[in-house]
Amino acid sequence: MGKGYETHQARVMALQGLGKDLARRAKSKCELTGAAGVSLRPYEVPPVADEPDIERTLLISEACHEVLEHPKRLKGREWQCLAEVVWSEMPAMQVVAWRMLNHLAKSEDWAREVVEEVFLDEAVEEWANSEEL
Questions:
Q1: How many domains does the chain have?
Q2: Which residues of 49-87 are buried (b: 16+ CB within 10 A; e: fewer)?
Q3: For the segment 75-126, what is each residue's pLDDT rounded down to a tens digit?
Q4: Which residues pair with 43 in a beta bridge?
Q5: Helix-helix angle 19-26:3-17, to 10 degrees
Q6: Whole domain around residue 111: which residue ranges?
Q7: 3-state DSSP helix/strand/coil percent for the chain, to nearest 5?
Protein backbone atom coordinates (compact mmCIF):
# COMPACT_ATOMS: atom_id res chain seq x y z
CA MET A 1 0.00 0.00 0.00
CA GLY A 2 1.07 3.54 -0.67
CA LYS A 3 2.41 6.00 1.85
CA GLY A 4 -0.50 8.37 1.12
CA TYR A 5 -3.00 5.71 2.09
CA GLU A 6 -1.14 4.95 5.31
CA THR A 7 -0.97 8.65 6.17
CA HIS A 8 -4.69 9.03 5.51
CA GLN A 9 -5.53 6.00 7.67
CA ALA A 10 -3.37 7.34 10.51
CA ARG A 11 -5.23 10.67 10.34
CA VAL A 12 -8.62 8.92 10.33
CA MET A 13 -7.58 6.95 13.42
CA ALA A 14 -6.39 10.14 15.15
CA LEU A 15 -9.73 11.82 14.37
CA GLN A 16 -11.62 8.82 15.71
CA GLY A 17 -9.59 9.23 18.90
CA LEU A 18 -11.23 12.64 19.32
CA GLY A 19 -14.70 11.13 18.89
CA LYS A 20 -15.71 10.75 22.53
CA ASP A 21 -14.46 14.19 23.49
CA LEU A 22 -16.20 15.75 20.47
CA ALA A 23 -19.47 13.96 21.28
CA ARG A 24 -19.25 15.09 24.90
CA ARG A 25 -18.55 18.70 23.93
CA ALA A 26 -21.33 18.69 21.31
CA LYS A 27 -23.75 16.78 23.54
CA SER A 28 -24.15 14.39 20.59
CA LYS A 29 -25.72 17.13 18.44
CA CYS A 30 -24.55 18.84 15.28
CA GLU A 31 -22.45 21.79 16.42
CA LEU A 32 -23.75 23.96 13.59
CA THR A 33 -27.46 23.19 13.48
CA GLY A 34 -28.10 21.60 16.87
CA ALA A 35 -29.72 18.61 15.12
CA ALA A 36 -29.98 15.56 17.38
CA GLY A 37 -30.57 11.97 16.42
CA VAL A 38 -28.72 12.33 13.13
CA SER A 39 -25.49 10.78 11.92
CA LEU A 40 -22.55 12.94 13.01
CA ARG A 41 -18.95 13.07 11.86
CA PRO A 42 -15.84 15.09 12.66
CA TYR A 43 -15.03 18.03 10.39
CA GLU A 44 -11.58 19.59 10.50
CA VAL A 45 -11.84 23.31 9.85
CA PRO A 46 -9.39 24.30 7.09
CA PRO A 47 -6.57 24.95 6.94
CA VAL A 48 -6.00 21.56 8.53
CA ALA A 49 -3.20 21.31 11.09
CA ASP A 50 -0.51 18.63 10.87
CA GLU A 51 -2.15 16.70 13.70
CA PRO A 52 -5.91 16.59 14.37
CA ASP A 53 -6.80 19.16 17.02
CA ILE A 54 -10.10 19.14 18.92
CA GLU A 55 -10.07 22.95 18.96
CA ARG A 56 -10.05 22.96 15.14
CA THR A 57 -12.55 20.11 14.70
CA LEU A 58 -16.35 20.21 14.83
CA LEU A 59 -18.87 17.41 15.12
CA ILE A 60 -21.39 18.03 12.36
CA SER A 61 -24.26 16.26 10.61
CA GLU A 62 -23.90 14.54 7.27
CA ALA A 63 -26.09 17.30 5.77
CA CYS A 64 -23.73 20.03 7.01
CA HIS A 65 -20.70 18.09 5.82
CA GLU A 66 -22.28 17.72 2.38
CA VAL A 67 -22.87 21.48 2.17
CA LEU A 68 -19.34 22.28 3.30
CA GLU A 69 -17.97 19.92 0.65
CA HIS A 70 -20.32 21.35 -2.03
CA PRO A 71 -20.97 25.04 -1.18
CA LYS A 72 -23.22 25.58 -4.21
CA ARG A 73 -25.85 23.63 -2.27
CA LEU A 74 -25.76 26.22 0.52
CA LYS A 75 -28.92 28.28 0.04
CA GLY A 76 -31.93 29.59 1.84
CA ARG A 77 -33.30 30.50 5.19
CA GLU A 78 -32.77 26.99 6.56
CA TRP A 79 -29.28 28.18 7.56
CA GLN A 80 -30.46 31.04 9.77
CA CYS A 81 -29.11 29.06 12.73
CA LEU A 82 -25.71 30.40 11.63
CA ALA A 83 -26.74 33.86 12.86
CA GLU A 84 -26.37 32.46 16.40
CA VAL A 85 -23.51 30.05 15.76
CA VAL A 86 -21.24 32.85 14.55
CA TRP A 87 -21.41 34.30 18.09
CA SER A 88 -20.22 31.04 19.67
CA GLU A 89 -17.32 31.17 22.10
CA MET A 90 -15.59 28.44 20.10
CA PRO A 91 -13.39 29.87 17.32
CA ALA A 92 -13.85 26.85 15.00
CA MET A 93 -17.62 27.34 15.06
CA GLN A 94 -17.22 31.06 14.43
CA VAL A 95 -14.93 30.40 11.46
CA VAL A 96 -17.26 27.90 9.76
CA ALA A 97 -20.34 30.03 10.42
CA TRP A 98 -18.54 33.14 9.10
CA ARG A 99 -17.50 31.36 5.91
CA MET A 100 -20.98 29.96 5.36
CA LEU A 101 -22.63 33.32 6.06
CA ASN A 102 -20.32 35.09 3.62
CA HIS A 103 -21.24 32.55 0.96
CA LEU A 104 -24.95 32.99 1.73
CA ALA A 105 -24.61 36.78 1.76
CA LYS A 106 -24.11 36.69 -2.00
CA SER A 107 -27.79 35.79 -2.44
CA GLU A 108 -29.52 36.14 0.94
CA ASP A 109 -30.32 39.52 2.49
CA TRP A 110 -30.64 38.10 6.02
CA ALA A 111 -27.10 36.64 5.79
CA ARG A 112 -25.70 39.93 4.50
CA GLU A 113 -27.20 41.72 7.51
CA VAL A 114 -25.68 39.19 9.93
CA VAL A 115 -22.24 39.52 8.30
CA GLU A 116 -22.42 43.31 8.66
CA GLU A 117 -23.14 43.00 12.40
CA VAL A 118 -20.58 40.36 13.32
CA PHE A 119 -17.34 41.22 15.06
CA LEU A 120 -14.66 38.56 15.19
CA ASP A 121 -11.50 38.53 17.23
CA GLU A 122 -8.52 39.43 15.03
CA ALA A 123 -7.03 35.91 15.11
CA VAL A 124 -10.41 34.31 14.36
CA GLU A 125 -11.03 36.72 11.50
CA GLU A 126 -7.60 35.92 10.04
CA TRP A 127 -8.38 32.18 10.26
CA ALA A 128 -11.85 32.70 8.74
CA ASN A 129 -10.42 34.66 5.83
CA SER A 130 -7.51 32.26 5.23
CA GLU A 131 -9.76 30.02 3.12
CA GLU A 132 -13.10 30.32 1.39
CA LEU A 133 -16.01 27.95 1.44
A1: 1
A2: eeebeeebbbbbbebbbebbeeeeebeeeebeebbebbe
A3: 888 999 999 999 999 999 999 999 999 999 999 999 999 999 999 999 999 9
A4: 58
A5: 40
A6: 3-129
A7: 55, 10, 35
